[in-house]
Amino acid sequence: MLAALTAAGAPADVLTAAGANAAVEPFEVFEENWETVKAFLELETCWTWLVPAMGRPIRSGIAASEIRATLEVLLPSGADLRQTFLDIRAMERAALEVFLEQA
Asked: Would you list the domain boundaries of the chain?
């Protein structure tokens, strides 16, 4: 994200804030979940945003079509597309809770 902000010419205070938010602790991902996590991370630019007339923009989720297209490209043949879709939706719900807490 920092690279994208820098390329877009973001001001120094925005870059500093983004850098502070990027400093998170590493976490373990079980091997059987790795493909799902990779797909979820690839969807980082696909969030739908709501921009109210007054107030800050908020994320509302990821379009199902974006998830499906990403899974069709990334998952190995024979992978359970339906279950992975549901797993990503669960990750999306958890992420939305965190985003709302940070707002």
From this structure: 1-102
